[in-house]
Amino acid sequence: MSAALPRTTREVRLAAVPEGLPTQEHFVVAETPLPEAGAGQVLVRNRYFLVFPGLRTLIGGEVEGVPLPPLRSGDTLFGPAVGEVVAAPAGSALRTGEIVAHMRGWREYALVEAAECTPLAGAWPDPVSYLAQGAAAYGTLTRLADVRMGDVVFVTGAAGAVGSLAGQIARLLGARRVIGSTGSPWKAERLMSELGYDAVVLRGEGSLADQLAEAAPEGIDVLVDTVAGEQLRAALGAARQGARFALVGALSGQLSAERAGGSAPVEIDAFRIVVKGISLRGYSGADHPDVEREWAGRFNEWLRSGEISFPHTRIAGITRAPRALRELIEGRHFGAVVVEL
């Protein structure tokens, strides 16, 4: 192992499974010996990792149908990360100095199977862009909702990691009018001034249904829903004939203190779905394995041309990562939340 490398590294562990929403007290930043790369492995010094709301579900343990394992007390958290290979055994397909993406974030140094790394090799204008959660938004809009020229699109949770990209993508795919929802006036202002949203409805500022009717007097053609709950009900009330609804998240239940992260019940008007001919489908990336590569190509082109931006908040240092998760749950940040090491 190179003498330039430290003897120890830090990682974020779940100290205790919470009852309700996790707080900083449920995590610990632990110091552990730096691992050595064995056959088929590489040691990566992480530069960035993503803080994502799905961790709430993994911590809550309600993971049926989720392609990730639950987190138990004492486990190190994980998730998408970008870093630099600092040690690789002889014969490895990866070399020291290469920038790679992998799923072992929440630690300063990660021991990763080489086969589980994606070399980035200068493919991205900024490596942190690889952590953008746009594949789900792009897949939803191209595979389920099939956005068309002239459509009116409503995006719930528009200031989140998925929603902040969904509105931009919808516009690039031909949407005539893009409407978002959020819970903060300052986020609403940024959605319109920076991301091109035509209108924003505000949770907690009167009837969502009335606000949406005013923002889309002719109704909506497409829903990209990351929240569910009352926002899904309001969207059904505004749906035009043949509207296409795609559910990509359910944050109203996932981030509820009364639930464990794996359910989001909502009462909806089935009669309206029938008479309006509304399609309502859930998006799963596993059902569309071709989307990730297609999205990466288009996102790269749009980034380089300046047609799209990657809204995100950078949090400095691993010790602030547990707090960043709590702040994400509380809705304090705009766009994706990334820890920079």
Automatic annotation (TrEMBL):
Record-linked CDD domains: PGDH
Taking the record's annotation, the residue ranges forming a coiled coil are none
Q: Which UniProt keywords apply?
A: Oxidoreductase
Where in the numbering of this chain does the Enoyl reductase (ER) domain appear? Answer: 20-339
Molecular function terms in GO for this entry? oxidoreductase activity, acting on the CH-CH group of donors, NAD or NADP as acceptor
State the superkingdom: Bacteria
Q: Does the keyword Oxidoreductase apply?
A: yes
Question: SUPFAM superfamilies of this UniProt entry?
Answer: GroES-like, NAD(P)-binding Rossmann-fold domains
Can you say what this protein is called?
NADP-dependent oxidoreductase
Q: Which organism is it from?
A: Streptomyces inusitatus
- Classification of source organism: Bacteria, Bacillati, Actinomycetota, Actinomycetes, Kitasatosporales
